[in-house]
Amino acid sequence: MVKFLIGIGIPYIAVIALLPWVNAVNTNVFGVPFIYFWIFIWMILTSVCMLACWIFFDSKNVDADD
User: Fold this and answer.
1) Better-scored residue on pLDDT, 34 or 2
2) What value does the mean pLDDT take over residues 5-27?
3) I need a labelling partner for 27 at 20 to 30 A (CA). Which of 9, 20, 57, 64 fits?
4) Considering its fold, how many domains does the chain have in total?
5) CA-wise closest residue to 7 among 51, 39, 55, 59
6) Beta strands 28-29 and 32-33, pairing class
7) In this structure, is residue 64 part of a structural domain?
8) In the predicted model, is pLDDT for residue 64 greater than 90?
């Protein structure tokens, strides 16, 4: 359950649930509107969440091809 929460729950909450708040922010980050920056950065952070799931939960289950 924790693996699901880290891999899917955190990115879902960040992108979908916080979108009304992000849409209300009227600032630019590096010349890009904040909402576009938010979505772009969460594409990267979603990969980081999936990597964390793999490192903490699944990397021990990988069979060696020796």
Assistant:
1) 34
2) 88
3) 9
4) 1
5) 51
6) antiparallel
7) no
8) no
Establish if 62 belongs to a structural domain. Answer: no
Judge whether 10 and 42 are in contact, CB under 8 Å. Answer: no
pTM for the model: 0.74
Measured distance CA(63)–CA(29) in Å, rounded: 44
d(CA 36, CA 34) in angstroms, rounded, equals 5
CA distance 61 to 44: 25
**Buried (b) or exposed (e) across 2-23, using 16+ Cβ within 10 A?**
eeeebbeebbeebbeeeeeebe
Q: What is the pLDDT at residue 30? A: 93
Which amino acid type is present at position 47? S
Structural domain of residue 37, as residue ranges? Answer: 2-57
Integer Cα distance of 64 and 28 in angstroms: 47
In a domain? residue 10? yes
Question: What was the pLDDT predicted at 65?
Answer: 55
